[in-house]
Specification:
Elements lengths: L2 H16 L3 E7 L10 H18 L4 E9 L6 E7 L6 H4 L19 H11 L3 E7 L3 E8 L20 E5 L3 H13 L3 E5 L2 H11 L3 E5 L8 H11 L4 E6 L2 H9 L3 E4 L2 E2 H8 L14 E2 L7
Parallel strand pairs: 1-2, 6-7, 6-8, 8-9, 9-10
Antiparallel strand pairs: 2-3, 3-5, 4-5, 11-12
Helix pairs in contact: 1-2, 2-4, 4-7, 6-7
């Protein structure tokens, strides 16, 4: 699928996101260009940017989606520009930081632009933002172009085989218990009880595996956490824990690795073994999550 075809199919959703009274225009120098990226995640990024633009505009406004090839880098520069209120310099400098938001409580997680930046990095490119107060904001994604000679397998990151694991779960007792099991197996394990704490830990600790709850008790879910974590450590393996059968099914359909709560030490051992160096310790079948400790 070409970029122009993707945008054409996405335009009705972009117009719906902007709402009545706001206009969207598209300008592609080469409508036949194809990208080496995940089309679904690119679509989500563009919609994220459209929602941000809507919030920055008044009852009327204009959004422009444009693309051109940078002759120096050979990358495609995909820009989403609005004529909204713009941002001051101190906000621009922090705009891509996870959990940074200027919106009121309950109106934003601070992950929209961070997710866009993470997607661009994971795709082998980058993202930048320019903004002027009273003029508007432009977010530009620099993304690799598909030449017809590249293959997906060439872009696969070779995973390390170390022994570092971060466990993320909003129930501290459960996060501690999973981490203690891992330590018993001879793994260097740390735990965090919020997505923000997990990302800060991942940046310093650089783990080989993230074992994360799929459904935190906040606006951020495990998938968003995982995408941001992989932007920090590109060869990070992720295993999701969930006690909800529908969520388990959805994650598996996305090709994600999962552990169904409650699970045993043996289940945890089996899930981790492909991604860490040879494990020591006894993978006993004591249940994690029985009785008071149900996950």
């Amino acid at each position: 699928m070409t970029l122009s075809e993707l945008i054409k199919g996405l335009l009705p959703l972009v117009r719906q996101a902007l709402g009545e009274g706001r206009q969207v225009t598209v300008d592609f120098a080469d409508p036949t260009v194809q990208l080496m990226v995940d089309a679904g995640r690119l679509s989500s990024c563009i919609l994220n940017l459209a929602f941000n633009s809507r919030d920055a505009m008044g009852p009327t406004g204009a959004l422009r989606i444009s693309a051109r090839t940078n002759s120096d880098s050979g990358f495609l520069e995909l820009s989403v520009a609005d004529d909204g209120k713009g941002m001051p310099a101190d906000v621009v400098s922090r705009a891509f930081e996870p959990f940074f938001t200027t919106k009121g409580v309950g109106r934003g997680t601070g992950l929209g632009l961070a997710t866009v930046y993470a997607f661009a990095q994971q795709s082998g490119g980058t993202a930048s933002l320019e903004s002027r107060l009273g003029i508007g904001t432009t977010v530009t994604l620099s993304l690799p172009i598909y030449s017809g000679q590249q293959t997906r397998t060439a872009a696969v990151v070779q995973r390390r085989s170390g022994r570092r694991v971060v466990v993320a779960d909003d129930e501290q007792s459960l996060a501690e218990m999973v981490a203690s099991w891992l330590i018993d197996m001879g793994i260097d394990a740390r735990f965090a009880t919020s997505p923000k704490a997990a990302l800060e830990m991942i940046e310093i600790f650089e783990p080989d595996v993230l074992v994360s709850d799929a459904n935190f008790g906040e606006e951020v879910d495990g998938i968003q956490l995982a995408r941001l974590a992989v932007a920090i450590v590109p060869d990070l393996a992720v295993i999701f824990m969930t006690g909800y059968s529908e969520q388990m099914r959805n994650l598996q359909e996305l090709g994600e690795r999962t552990l169904a709560k409650p699970f045993s030490r043996e289940d945890l051992y089996s899930a981790l073994s492909p991604f860490v160096a040879h494990l020591d310790g006894d993978a006993s079948v004591d249940q994690l999550g029985g009785g008071e400790n149900s996950l």
